[in-house]
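Structure ticket #2291
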Amino acid sequence: MHETKRQQRLGGLDGLRAIAVGLVLVYHLFPPLMPGGFLGVDVFFAISGFLIATLLMREHESKGRINLVDFWRRRARRLLPALGLVVAVTTAASFIVGGDLLYHIRQQVIGALLFVSNWVFIAFGTDYFAQDTPELLRNTWSLAIEEQFYLLLPLVLIVLLRRSRKALVVTLFALLGTGSAWLMWHYSLTGIDATRIYFGSDSHVFGLLFGVALAALLHPSRKNAAAITSLTRPQAIVNTVIVVAGLSCFMWLSLTLVEGSTESFEGGFQLATLAALVTVGAVTRPGAPLARALDIRPLAYIGERSYGIYLWHWPVLLLVRQSLGPAAGLTTPVWVIGVVTLGITLTAAGLSYRFVETPIRRHGLRTSWNAFWGALAGRMSRPVTKRRALTVFSITFLAVPLVGGALLTAPNRTSSEAAIERGREATQSAPQGAEGAQPDSETPDPADAFQAGPEAKKSPSADDATGGGNADAEAAPQQLNHGLDLTAVGDSVMLASAPELSDAFAGVDIDAEVSRGLGYAVSYVEELAHTGSLRPILVIGLGTNGPISDDDLAAIAQIAEKRRIILVNAYADRWWVPEVNEQLTAFADDHRGVVVADWNGSIAPHPELLAGDLVHPHPEGGEVYASAIAQAIDELNAQDERVGFGVPRR
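Resolution: structure written out below.
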């Protein structure tokens, strides 16, 4: 847009950029408010494809050709200065702050600067929708897709526009966009990893492709260009309705779509892109009424700096979390971290736009470089210019060794990965079952543990409370508390706690792995029950990785029959965790012989016992995990729970 003349300016796009970056900011900084704010990136894709194609077609129309070198030079001037500054400053800052922020930083820097970071993250198995591996430059994935697209787009347009085949441009890019959108849908249906779908250039490029098709469709021919006039009143009304409908649609999706869900990949992204394209096409029409509203100064200001805001916000968020959050021994509220991040982001993006991006875009790198050294040497007459040059030089002088230190000392795994690996080694080396430690007494049959008659009560009788009721006490089922009584099924949190579980409950049977959900337990417990390997107490710790189903809980209880069940609740900064914990508590309240091990309440006051992701425990945290299960066993052994499933709670 900045390359066009004023009379060719496409109205409303800065405002749309501001809305798009606003969605992304709210999604990352204040997640409960905008769970689908990740769609802001797809609005950017639609705008970028439309805008770049429009500029290239205008150039071809006015000059009869597209200058590839000049196009790529403009792209480099626009993107590289801000990107290089963000990479240098935030990498240096992460070296100072420490923690897991330097995880794979060498590969991240290379991927970001070469615009292939999306594939780098796919190769690492990064989970975009989780906070377990906080890659400092994770947000550069979208720049990679755009730049890969920009590398090929002018080459294709040169061929297609050579004979003014505009209809061919529309058809080809519409078909390619449809193919990419279908690929996202197909990958989801076939169970491909959500991050692979989201990061893939093949499955997430359709917004850019459709943007090109829309630009070609709306681009006027030379004959019709002079005939374009402002909209008539009826046309203006229709145009306004279209813009409002488009904005409302992707705002509604941003408020309702769930990250990484099948609904998002099987229609959500596609619908959001369609809404963005409709909005772009309508608002850029000459005389569009809402174009002026979208170009009001506050929105225009944010839109002009949206690229820098997008670049800065994610690494700044991670740095602020590391500095003000539990990793630093602080309990700063999430909203405070968001506000601090927003303030730093807007300041950094504003300074970058004024003193780095704009001068280089206008004058080029060589001229700007010569001006910088001239000011530094005192050859410029304005003192303020020299002070700015000295400031930039000082920051660079300090940043270079810090960046070098970061690149040299970058770990190849996070503290959470180290915790998980420690647990995996423990489960692979520790003997279990019949080969493990033997209990002091024979393991009771699970059915014997629940021989409670219909006359059993939820609360102890008055005789029990005063020391009477010895007959009931003698008839109570045998208490279970050793490892050979326990079958434990869990996710990576249980896996990281496995050494401490094995120490606390010798012989416990642990089956835990990364990224599991509750659905896994249904089939696994059924298999154990079928082979007679299911022990009297079943420990389920599967609430960290996503929402759970009440039907799955009911199915597990039915398969377990009269065995007692411990449901370990979850602790993680994820939107579904509170809901999961409420479901587990409600299920335990409705079923005798089922209790909740309060991992959430036990570890919340001690975040320092967790790895850098604030999810997986260090050894001391594993002891807290085991202690929560021990307390749950004590609760199961209380008389009101030992009556078992035979007597309903209500």
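Closing remark: Residues 334-376 form the longest helix (43 residues).
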